[in-house]
Structures are given as structure tokens and as C-alpha cells.
Amino acid sequence: MKSITCVVIEDHAMVRSALVDLLRAQPGLEVIGDAPDGVRGLALLRVLRPDVAVVDVRMPGIDGIEVCATARSEGLPTAIVLHSAFGSAGVAETARAAGAHGCAGKGDHPAELLQLVFSASRRRSPTVDD
After folding, report:
1. Distances from the Cα of 19 to the Cα of 40, 83, 87, angstroms
2. How far apart are CA 25 and CA 47, in angstroms?
3. pTM, full prediction
4. According to the model, what pLDDT value does residue 89 have?
5. Is the N or the C terminus of the chain less surrounded, counting Cβ atoms within 10 Å?
């Protein structure tokens, strides 16, 4: 069975490292890259074309919403799961409008983010209430 390929785009190094570790610990997931900002993250999406990207909503420069909207406008195949320190409910509508698969809060249980990643890899609607 093919692994689900993932990229993490997050400006805080400790959070990025924790997300990479969380995803790598899951059977069937393979982290193939990470980036500290939206510009480098978009470059990774264009070159690596992962199945799923976990992207921080608020980053300096190009934020996660813009990463998502640009990926959609360019026709990139990557499903994007946004995550936010400000709670998923506050950004869910904007995230959906930009073409995100879903949004998880950084304070949510890691299982919720993982559920969104697996759901996004199947290109199905999220099952959690954003």
C-alpha cells in the first residue's frame, strides 16, 4: 500500500518539528518535506506534489490561507489541512473559501488533526465540526 505523502508548512520551529514527528509516527504517512514559511512551502508543493500539506494559518509573508488559495488556483493536487492557534471555528469559513480540506486548532487533540490528514488524503469532506 502506498504511503500518504505529507509536507508541513509552519513558521515556528518547535511546532513544525512536533508536527513532523507526529505525522512520521503514524503508519501509512510519510513526511517528504517541511518549510518555515509560505513562500518556501509553496515551492515544496509545486515540486514534491504531496498528497496532503499541513499548513499554519498565520505566518509572516504568505499566510496559510494564501498558500491554500494559490495552490488551488495553480491546480496543485495537494489537499491542504490548515491549523491555527486561534481555534478552528474562527477560520473555518475563510479556510473553506480558500479551498482547504479542513482546519484544526493547535489546542485540539492530535487525533483530530490526524483524522483530517487521513480524510484529506482520500479527498473526502472532513468529519469533524470545524
Report:
1. 17, 11, 17
2. 24
3. 0.90
4. 57
5. N
